[in-house]
Amino acid sequence: LHLAAEEGHDKTVELLLQHGANVHSLDLGGRNALHRTALNGHASTVQLLLDYGTDVHTRDFFEGTGLHVAACNGHDDTIRVLLAAGDDIQAKDDNGRSPL
């Protein structure tokens, strides 16, 4: 799921989720699939993961959210999707940085 999400393969992500992939699973860095797809700016995949119940507030081992990742990489469309889903623009990572 994480690899398909990271690459923005919406059809594959949806197929995996329909067949029981855990939308809440974390990789070794504490990132969920939302973090991984936000990294590459795949806004439609972010929305798909949100539709399947991923937690927009999940933080990785550095206390970063998907919004931190999207903002750091300049993915405006992904930022809009995450903000509409309620991600916290004031959330601070372990270095005290917000997505702003």
From TrEMBL:
Indicate yes or no for the key word Chaperone: no
Listed name of the protein? Ankyrin repeat protein
Matching InterPro entries, A to Z? ANKRD_45/46/60 (IPR039323), Ankyrin_rpt (IPR002110), Ankyrin_rpt-contain_sf (IPR036770)
Carries keyword Translocase?
no
Q: Which domain of life is it from?
A: Eukaryota
ANK-type repeats, residues: 1-28, 29-61, 62-94
Q: Which UniProt keywords apply?
A: ANK repeat
